[in-house]
Design goal:
globular; alpha/beta; Rossmann fold; 389 residues
Length: 389
Amino acid sequence: MQQLLELDACTQCGECLARCPVQDVTGNPAVSPPEKIRMFKEFIKSTNGLRAQLFGPKDVDKRLLEDFAKAVFECTTCGSCSQVCPVGIFTQRLWPALRKEMVRRGLGPIGVQRELPNAVSRTGNPYDRPAGQRYSPWFPEEVRISDRADIAYYAGCTGAYEAQPMVRGDVLVLARIGEAFTMLPPEEEVCCGFPLFITGQHDILEDLIKRLVNAYKARGVNILLCSCPCCVNMMTRDWPLFYGEELPFKVRHITQFVADAVKGGKLRIRKGLKERIIYHDPCYLARGVKVIEEPRTILRSIPSVELLEFERHGLDTRCCGAGGAARKVFHDNAVAMGRLTIKEATDKKADRLILSCPACYSKVNEAMQGYERQIVITDIMELIASLIK
């Protein structure tokens, strides 16, 4: 298993500490990447090593186990630490693997994360919201969708329930481009599985994913579009594994599709925007599936706009605090990380902060409540939709 090899590869050099968003807001070395790896190796030795096999597992202090489980689930799984790891440990996959092991041993997940499988089983989404309300009230009345089409759009749970201006913008832009697209009925468009995967709760994933893949296959879909980076990452990396074979369609982030439409002349943005805007790269979009230039291609096509950059952007982007399902339990951490993003945007005198992730959209807006720094927060497709009316 690659993750076990990576555990042994860690040299405890500490290079990753300066890139960890949890360290930025807590300064707690007990939840740092190298300490988590060290603690897990000790745990494995105590319970699975040669001594444990010969003489039985050594008792591990319950408080230490609880602290370790907390450290693993407090991580936002942003993968930033892997960018500076001298031995190339792929932490964006390592941390979920450790979480799965903790769940297998009855040591996780934490708090409300435990309710995710039941919520998804009941309503098809981790928020436990009514399935019939998945597309309301945000879906534009004037947009028509086809029963069958080459292209399908997947709204995703966080967009549909927590970041509705974002998904509304998605379908408005798709409608303007003019290519027919289909969507599953609201009761059939269930969770992509990412919240369950990232919290180590895999029991219902295979069924969930096969239902979605087969439903799109039945509609003749060749391209599946989605704006949620976590969904796209899950679809690209993990759907084929749980489906058991190559997917019958290609998965693309919506900015990839729209950037092609801009370059091909299918979408023209004629209305200008005389603003300084700054774009935040979502962790699972930039580091996860390497979509970095496409959002910038779209934003630069807006007349009169000035595009700024964060000090850390692209593959080096800083987590906004919404990732890894940690925000569901470690609220204060998430808000503090979101405020670091807002602070840098306002320090750079940006007029508007552009996001392209529903989790970021929801949490950074929440972080701005009651904060002395204020800035207009807009999803990239929400912005484009407002300029092509």
